[in-house]
């Protein structure tokens, strides 16, 4: 297996965290990350200048999500990931699960809808195009659990256990396309579950939890399959460069352990977020009921008391 076709030599030193975190930017992801941060920052500044508020926590979450993408794709972790299954699996898990969750917690669509100016009557600007996309049939399909859950699972089994993975790893564009796919699948899978931004599907909280747990166990099963294999299962990583000083089967075992263990992290993060959202929703509902009671003198309670009085009168 020739490992030199991606713009890097085969003489990588044995992996250490320090070496993995050295700067080695992928141009596509570097530009994408900088553009994402710049657009989000523009939206926040626009809101603040007109006197609106925007939660600091959302900004922090979005920035953290973008920085995790940059950490995976703009350091030498990306170089090592081309020849080490374990490092690649870290990239995959972070890009497909942790990064999308953090970015979605930043509510970028809500920010865009609030920050973008209306184009005016009869015209279509960025805000109108975004609204059209949110209401499109395409988005209803790709965010439906009937699509997102199978796609989330297929991104593991149909990719790694077929020749498709090796084909994509043969070129830099193929590798970039695969990483973009991981990120996009994570976004559409977690978007309806997180429920922060508006979208075509907004199920109840219990249904969101069911959707979450419908997809997560397959990551654990995938990791166990890699750990139990007695031979290398992916040709790309079957013959690692001698300079790394690693055994292909041991590295695959480590990759399986990462996939198995990492599946718990997003589950906990999303569950915590859902619990906070659920509690906040209940609090808002209680406040609405209190305001309604203040306006109408709590007519429901008066009607119920009258009903009880009528029952009591009948009994006497």
**Gap from first CA to last CA:** 93 Å
Any idea what the radius of gyration is?
A: 25 Å
Whole-number mean pLDDT: 85
What portion of residues belong to β-strands?
under 5%
Listing every helix as H and every strand as E from the N terminus to the C terminus, the arrangement reads HHHHHHHHHHHHHHH
Number of strands: 0
The helix content is over 70%
Unreliable stretches: 1-9
What is the overall shape? globular
Topology (SSEs and partners):
Layout lengths: L16 H4 L6 H23 L6 H18 L3 H5 L3 H21 L2 H8 L10 H9 L2 H6 L2 H16 L3 H5 L3 H23 L10 H24 L19 H15 L1 H33 L2 H17 L1
Task: Characterize the structure shown.
Mean pLDDT is 85; it is low at 1-9. The chain has helices at residues 17-20, 27-49, 56-73, 77-81, 85-105, 108-115, 126-134, 137-142, 145-160, 164-168, 172-194, 205-228, 248-262, 264-296, 299-315. α12 (205-228) runs antiparallel to α13 (248-262). The protein contains 15 helices and no strands. The chain has 316 residues and is mostly helical.
Short précis:
Helices cover 72% and strands 0% of the residues.
Key traits:
single chain, 316 residues, mainly alpha, 0% strand, globular, disordered N terminus
């Amino acid at each position: 297996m020739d490992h030199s076709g991606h713009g890097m030599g085969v003489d990588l030193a044995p992996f250490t965290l320090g070496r993995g975190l050295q700067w080695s930017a992928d141009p596509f992801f570097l530009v994408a990350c900088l553009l994402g941060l710049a657009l989000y920052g523009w939206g926040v500044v626009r809101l603040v200048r007109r006197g609106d508020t925007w939660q600091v926590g959302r900004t922090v979450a979005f920035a953290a999500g973008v920085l995790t993408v940059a950490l995976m794709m703009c350091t030498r972790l990306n170089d090592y990931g081309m020849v080490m299954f374990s490092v690649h699996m870290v990239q995959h898990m972070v890009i497909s699960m942790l990064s999308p969750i953090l970015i979605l917690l930043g509510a970028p669509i809500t920010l865009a809808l609030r920050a973008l100016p209306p184009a005016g009557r009869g015209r279509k600007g960025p805000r109108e195009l975004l609204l059209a996309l949110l209401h499109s049939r395409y988005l209803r399909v790709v965010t439906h659990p009937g699509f997102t859950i199978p796609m989330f699972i297929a991104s593991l089994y149909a990719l790694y256990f077929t020749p498709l993975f090796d084909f994509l790893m043969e070129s830099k564009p193929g590798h970039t396309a695969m990483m973009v796919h991981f990120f996009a699948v994570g976004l559409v899978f977690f978007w309806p579950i997180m429920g922060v931004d508006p979208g075509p599907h907004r199920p109840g909280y219990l249904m969101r939890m069911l959707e979450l747990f419908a997809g997560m166990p397959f990551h654990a099963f995938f990791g166990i399959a890699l750990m139990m294999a007695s031979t290398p299962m992916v040709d790309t990583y079957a013959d690692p460069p001698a300079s790394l000083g690693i055994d292909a089967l041991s590295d695959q075992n480590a990759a399986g352990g990462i996939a198995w263990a990492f599946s718990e992290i997003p589950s906990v993060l999303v569950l915590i977020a859902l619990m906070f959202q659920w509690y906040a929703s209940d609090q808002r509902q209680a406040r609405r009921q209190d305001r309604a009671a203040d306006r109408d003198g709590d007519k429901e309670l008066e009607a119920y008391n009258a009903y009880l009085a009528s029952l009591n009168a009948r009994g006497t």
